[in-house]
Amino acid sequence: MMTGGNSPLENPKISWKKGKFPDEAERKDRIQKTINKIENNDPDASIAIGYSSLDLAAPTSSQTTSLEINFSKDDMYLSWIGSGLGIGIRGGLILLFENDHILLNTFDGWKYYRSFLNDRAYEKLRGNQITTWNGQWITHINSFNFLPAEPRNEFFRKGF
């Protein structure tokens, strides 16, 4: 779903080139490293999506704080899902909703995102844009052109 910049899931960088995926052993190793880091370290941006860097002097595009905030291990794991459910809108702003209908619609759209990513006809579609996809998907399924029997129909005419 997401790579999480600077996480063991992404470093060393996983190529976004179409058809290039880590093998099963590498995926298991990366997942185990992420779990170990979550279980044994303080939360930071490399293991909890949206969190700050632990190094207040490090150059980062994330927020930093010197406040002592207690986060549970569950919070770190759930940050991956919560971030993936964000709905991207113009200007890099991502909205989070606490509405079952919107959350389920967003989640339902993920299988279509994966189908487009696996389709060679859409090679320019990148796999690290889940929140952008979510925004496009929510707009699409709430449009007059949406046909529940053909959910992918008319999607790319709108310019994702």
Architecture overview:
The mean pLDDT is 80. The protein starts with 23 loop residues before the first helix and ends in a 19-residue tail after the last helix. The chain is globular. It contains four helices and two strands, in the order ααββαα. 38% of the residues lie in helices and 2% in strands. It has 160 residues and is mainly α. A hairpin with a 5-residue loop joins β1 and β2. The protein has a two-stranded antiparallel sheet with strand order 1-2.
- Please work out how many helical segments DSSP would assign: 4
* Structural class by secondary-structure content: mainly alpha
Radius of gyration: 17 Å
Shape by Cα distribution: globular
Give start-end ranges of low-pLDDT stretches. none
Q: Cα distance, first to last residue?
A: 18 Å
Note the run of SSEs as H and E: HHEEHH
Proportion of strand residues: under 5%
Helix content: 25-40%
Whole-number mean pLDDT: 80
- Kindly state the number of beta strands: 2
Largest sheet: 2 strands, antiparallel
Strand numbers in spatial order across the main sheet: 1-2
